[in-house]
Structures are given as C-alpha cells and as structure tokens.
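Collaborator request, handled under Task 6.
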Amino acid sequence: MSNVTPTSSVRRHILRIFSGPLACALVFALPSPEGLDPRGVKCVAAAIWIILWWMTDAFPIALTSLFGLLLYAMMGVLPLVKGFAFFGNPSIILLLGAMLLLGVWKESNLIARYAYWAVTMPWVDGRPMRLLAVFGIAAGLLSALVPNIPVAMLFVSIAVAMAKGMKVEQGQPLFRALCLSSGVASALGGAGTPIGGAPNLVVVGVISSSLGYQIQFWEWTALGLPMSIGWLVVMVFLCWFFFIRHGCAFSPRDDGNTCVPLDSVMERMRALGPVTRHEHIAMAVMLLALLLWSFGPPAARALGLPELAGLLGAPFVAVLAGMSLFFIPLKKNDATGNITFAMNWKQGLSAINWDIIIFVTGALAFGQMLIDGSVDKWLAGLIGGMLEGMSPTMIWLILMTVSGLVSQCFSNVAVISLLLPVTAALAQRYGLNPVVTCLTVGMVANVGIMFPFSSPPTAATLMEAEGYVSARDFLRFSLPMLILASLIAMLTGVTLGALVFPMPA
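Structure tokens returned to the collaborator:
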C-alpha cells in the first residue's frame, strides 16, 4: 500500500506538468476564435499554459512566472527585454521598500508587541465577541501596512498559543473563529492600501498599463481603507454567527462575564520588556512613510513645487524609508567598537521575499501580454455580449462578483492580471468610471479565501493552525463573505469613487 500513494502522486504531478503545454497545443490545433488575430491566438495559448501551471501548482508559482517571461518571448508576443523591464515597475519598487519596512518591524519585535497589545486591551477583558472584534480588526489594519502573509502567521500563532495554554481541544468554536479570522482578516485588510498585498500591486500596475493612470497611495487608501474596514466588521459578525453565537463552550473565570483568560498572551507581552529604541525607530520610520505617502505630493503641489511632488511618489518614499533604516544608528557594538544600525545588510536581504517579487513581475508581464495581443478587447467583446441589455451598475456588480468567485479557484494575482484589462475595456464602453471600476474589481479579488491555493493568507493560516481551524471552515465562510464584500465594494465605489477619482472628460 505504501508504494501506491507515491506512484499516484508522481502520475498526478506529471499530468499537472503536461497540462500546460498540451492545452497550449490544443489552442493552436483548434480553429481560431472569431475576432482574434494570429498574435492574439498565441497570447491566449501562452496565457492558458501559465494559468494551468499557476492553478495546479505544477512548479512553484514564482518559477512559473519567470518561465512565462521566456514563453512570451519564444512565442513572439512580448519581447524578453520588455518582460524583464517589469522588475523596474513602480509596483515592484514599492514592494521592495515595503519589505524592508516589514523587516525592521519583525527584527525589533514591534509586530509581535502590536499583536499582543491588541488582544490584551482592558476593553476586551476576555469577552469572546470583543476579543474576536479586536483580534480580527487588528490583524486587518496591520495587514494594510505590511504584507499580509506574515500577519496571518503571527495572529494564528497567537490564537494557537492561547488555545494550548488553556488546554483547549481542537474544534472549540471560539478558537476556530480566531484562527479563521487571522487568515481572512489579513486578506481583507490587505485591500486597504497599495502595500497590503501582492494583488494590490498588480492592480496598480495593470491600471497603469490599461488606462495610463498611476494611482497614488492616498487615492487608493481613501477608497480602500473604508472598504476594508467595512469588510472586517462584516467578517467579525459572520464569525460570531458561524462559531460563537450560542456561547462559549467553557468558562474558565468565576465571574461569568468572561470566556478567555489572556494570561498566556500577557506573559508573552511582559517577556518583551519595555519598548526598545529599535521599536521606536521602526514605528517612526513607518509613520514618516505613511505621512509622505498620504500628504507628500499634495503638500508639495500646494507649495508650488511640482518637481518634488513628482518625486514623492509611493515607490520613491518606500525605498527612501526602507534605505534610511541602514543609516539610523541604533547602538554601539561593545565587542567591535562599530555602530550598529537599525537594519544591517544581511537583515535587509533576508527581509526581501524574491518569490513574491518574481511572482508579481511575471503577473504584470502576463497582463501586458494580453493587452499587447488585444486579448483584453476580445474578451471584453465576449463578456459584453453576454451582459448586453444590463445597466452599467449591474455590469459593475457582476464583474466584481466574477472577480471574487474566480479568485476562489485561481490565484487572485492571476485573476487580476486576466480580468482587469477586460474590466477597463468594458468600463469605457458602458460609461463607467474606469479607474474606480478596475479598483473595486481588483480589490474584491482579495476575498479569494476559500482554498489554500487561492489565498496565501489562507494557506499560511492552515499551515500554522495545528488543526484548530479546518479547510472546511474557510469553505463555508467564503461565499457569504464574498456576497457581502461585493455589495460593500459597490457602495464604497458609488459614494467615494467619484470624489477620489473624478470621471475623465
């Protein structure tokens, strides 16, 4: 019996590997679709190959993205130099700076202190609904500032440590809710700012390619943060409905008002000791970056300095803030007599996740390849025919729902790369605000939380949860969350979209 499983696994892996090239060959063997020229057919064939490898995990997704650059060049649909030029895309530069900022938060233990503080607030006092609200919203807001995968891992580890410290068995409703909210909140909160996750950076890049519009940090945040806060509030109530509305399964305190002793978390908090200089530096640099991202360009323009306003874009500020960490003195090294800085070069290298950088670069090139081959306009025509006769608002809602539904089964980065160019074309055809429509459709892709392969925070949570939450919990939670998230995104886009992004003339 032991020989069967490895053999079957090898066969499945071989099938996953051959699925891409076989599907690509099938596209060439079939008659060309009407309205698609030969170059467009090549683009569709290459896209299907890469999507299947992304979806089936035939190879690591970053490796597939890198291979895609070669594939597009070999098929003559995107020159290799143009594909590799996406490593210098503003989204990649922004991601690089954000990773350095996250690195100092981790090195200084500031990220851990934030998490422990959030769940030990006096207002919580062990009450399950309050704990769930603070736990989930704290994870979501933190993931708006730093990449969401480490946030998910940190918060689920806190929930598991609390459960183990209380000797709670797996499946206890409250801790199922806390573990689930670690992954879900990290994904939802990540939509709050452009640096909250890899999908956001792809959205920025594709909107730049499709519409020629470079979204500023404050513009995204003005629309995304209210939307993500609304999502987080809905998540908390759904967790309450699914897991703890019938009360806790235990009551370890005598007063009858509380349900969760937070002694283990407070012990970890005390073990960190007083706030260190390292943590103060990490917080100060992040706050300075946020101020420059939000108010730098408007303030420079108000002062009559347009050149400075152009310089203070989100990518420049991210790299400036990240690089400053290498030059801020922390302490003197008594052993060597040298100065120790807030971050050293080795720590900086370890903070940079090349998997994510290569993945996002490949996703941006994927979207550009579809645009160059006019596949976006062809798909827009097909989808537009199916939506004929519907109101523009209904088309907008359907596009958001499709984005969220497809993101449950595919990588949300791949979905954004494929769907956003189509959305841009449809928005312009039906008189919708193209930037707002693309933004909301791209943001809803963050709600792809159903399966591990559709959401990195979901995968990270399930890996770290040690059985306290199951894949089935995410499965039944995701659909109502998606429906409500789409409605909130529509409401936010209608009420705030025109204020932040005036309709182009």
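The cover message to the collaborator said: "The longest strand covers residues 329-332. The mean pLDDT is 83. Please let us know whether this matches your experimental observations."
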